[in-house]
Design a protein that fits this description.
Blueprint (H helix, E strand, L loop, with lengths): L33 E6 L4 H11 L5 E8 L3 H11 L3 E4 L2 H4 L12 E4 L1 H7 L7 E4 L7 H9 L3 E4 L3 H17 L2 E4 L2 H9 L8 E8 L9 H4 L4 H4 L9 H9 L1 H13 L7 E5 L5 E7 L4 E5 L5 H9 L31 H11 L3 H17 L7 H12 L8 H18 L2
Bound molecules: nicotinamide-adenine-dinucleotide and magnesium ion.
Length: 414
Amino acid sequence: MMASDRTAAPASSGSAPVASSAGVGGSVGQTRPQQVAVLGSTGSIGCSTLEVIAASAGRFAAWLLCGHRSVGPLLEQARIHRPRWLVVTDAAAAATIGAGALPAGTKLAVGPDRLADLVTAPEVDRVVSAIVGAAGLQSTWAAVAAGKTVALANKETLVMAGPLVMQRAAQTGGSILPVDSEHSAIHQALRSGQRQEVQRVVLTASGGPFRTWSQDRLATVTPAEALNHPTWSMGPKITIDSATMMNKALELIEARWLFDLPAEQLDVVVHPQSIVHSLVEYVDGSVIAQLGPPDMKLPIQYALAYPERYAGPARRFDFGATHQLEFEPPDLERFPAVRLGHEAAARGGTSGAVLNAANEEVVQAFLAGRLPFPQIARLCERAVTEHPFEPEPTLEDILRLDAWARKEVRTWMC
Ligand code: NAD
Ligand code: MG
């Protein structure tokens, strides 16, 4: 494999996010397991990652597990996976862990700074970045700065600081491999041609539970309705983002930086079955797609094992059944978040960080029953429009504007 190929496209074009370490060690018994740090191991992606590791026949082992507050499930994971380190980022939650609760050989570390330090340890071969929200940036940045190979679920890292993160990876020899199913599909489809042959990249979106709802009815959406996703089972934040289609906005920005594609080459199509995970159209009109049942274990395994493939635990496409695949353009009137994502991807700078921070705040308020559903996109748009835009922000600028957006949005909701 190509050690220098670490930006965002297929090996053939020299621009894919690619593992820069030496392979995954493939068959059992030939090499030691690759040591994996799983950040956000108690979440939806984290649990799926541990299933992939458990079913990897010794290819992978969990070296570090990290959760925020769910100490019980985290200790249970530690008993099963016997990691070297268990990290609890919330100090109060960590304080509830009694003496003797940890399995032999597992040490406890507390807080985000300790996590950012431990992901850089020489023992770590792969980092799965699956903390939700802006809280994932610090440890992901630390891993990239240490030249690690990062399987990235935490799209917020690229939404907030895409250019800086990709630049840092290029400097350190680190690699970013997408876990997001759309970006995993694009990564795979980009292996079909040369970079200059790409016409456009099309991200699929399920359309969420309210795809067919009228504008008036959208005003009545409750948190329980929004948490009921038709095709994917995910954590609460991304489930709400799927309902507003803000998830697609974040993914457009993620794709912009991960694959270094101009926003004009990025498109969204609604595909309610979530079987086609995204598509690349080439200049000759060929459209290359990646298909599979909606199961995150496949993109997780792809990111962990790249460039190898092996028979893993992900669900298989059933060719014995009749399937219908539908595609329709997104309705930007009812789902204005998609337009916001396009605009932020085109404008770059601090737009993504502000959009993300505002969205995190308003989603919390919506979940708490304090904000009507249509206001989510409206307040995000206001934050992006009103923020003091920086075209080439530093990490400090980004964190400052993240805090600015949260504070502003909170005052608008009072
Ligand atoms: P989740 O809510 O199920 O899990 C979040 C994890 O992050 C938990 O382990 C939690 O303990 C941890 N966490 C929460 N707050 C934290 C904090 N302040 N500091 C440290 N850790 C914290 O979320 P999820 O659905 O697994 O999503 C995780 C990430 O993966 C998100 O960025 C999401 O956008 C992305 N993603 C998820 C899916 C999916 O299918 N779930 C698909 C694509 C991308
Ligand atoms: Mg996705």
